[in-house]
Write a structure and sequence with these properties.
The chain is mainly alpha-helical. The chain has helices at 7-12, 15-48, 52-79, 84-113, 118-151, 154-212. Helix 2 packs parallel to helix 4 and helix 4 packs across helix 6.
């Protein structure tokens, strides 16, 4: 359910349902994240070439961005305590917008800077992917903080969300490698990931709006009494 943080909401909506919806959304978000990473890594081979150094640099950049994003997400969760689900929805929208234009951005930057020394290319890659990787890293602390507030159990909230996100990432890696790339190519795979992010964004936004209106989240009927 993912409703707005409030004592009233906590007493009217089961925490277990909130966890279930959050788990599904984070599973889909994990699929999108690994689809992006695989596609962006393939696109970046045009900058780096294909060798151990290039793969190490790309993965390190992603990990750095995710780490910075986790810190930023913790701050956002505290700063917007009454609107964490809306923040989560906005983050997913930000990732989707960047993802949609990402291949063109990579191609354009690569045409300008691919002949530069490796340290320059690494710094440029981090600059290009700072926004999406930080955004991806921010989603976990925002969602965990909201669910921990509702369930009173940080360990369960963190463990379950991380589990579903990791499972989504594994599914995303397999589907991207064996289905999306062979059939649709880089462009189609990235669009698929973008649609995943947009779907998560919309569902989270609807959940937030319905909770503010006093309705069961994702309800099909009238208001609760």
């Amino acid at each position: 359910m993912l409703p707005k943080t409030s004592a009233a909401a906590a007493t009217t909506e089961p925490a277990g349902t909130s966890m279930q919806l959050a788990s599904v959304l984070f599973f889909i978000s994990g699929i999108a994240a690994l689809t992006y990473q695989i596609c962006w890594q393939r696109a970046l081979f045009g900058w780096y070439g294909i060798d151990l150094d290039s793969v190490s640099a790309i993965v390190s950049i992603f990990m750095l961005g995710l780490g910075v994003g986790a810190l930023a997400g913790g701050w956002l969760a505290d700063r917007f305590g009454e609107h964490r689900i809306l923040v989560f929805s906005a983050i997913e929208l930000m990732i989707a917008v960047f993802g949609y234009f990402s291949l063109d951005l990579i191609d354009g930057a690569g045409a300008l800077f691919s002949s530069q020394p490796l340290p320059v290319i690494v710094a440029l890659t981090f600059a290009v992917f700072l926004v999406p990787t930080v955004a991806m890293g921010a989603t976990l602390p925002v969602l965990v903080t909201e669910l921990a507030h509702r369930t009173g159990n940080v360990g369960t909230s963190t463990g379950q969300l991380y589990y579903f996100n990791t499972m989504g990432a594994a599914v995303g890696a397999l589907v991207t490698a064996y289905v999306l790339l062979p059939i649709f190519g880089l462009d189609g795979a990235v669009v698929s990931a973008t649609l995943c992010n947009l779907g998560v964004c919309v569902v989270a936004a609807v959940a937030y709006r319905q909770s503010n209106a006093g309705q069961p989240v994702l309800a099909t009927g009238g208001e609760t009494t």
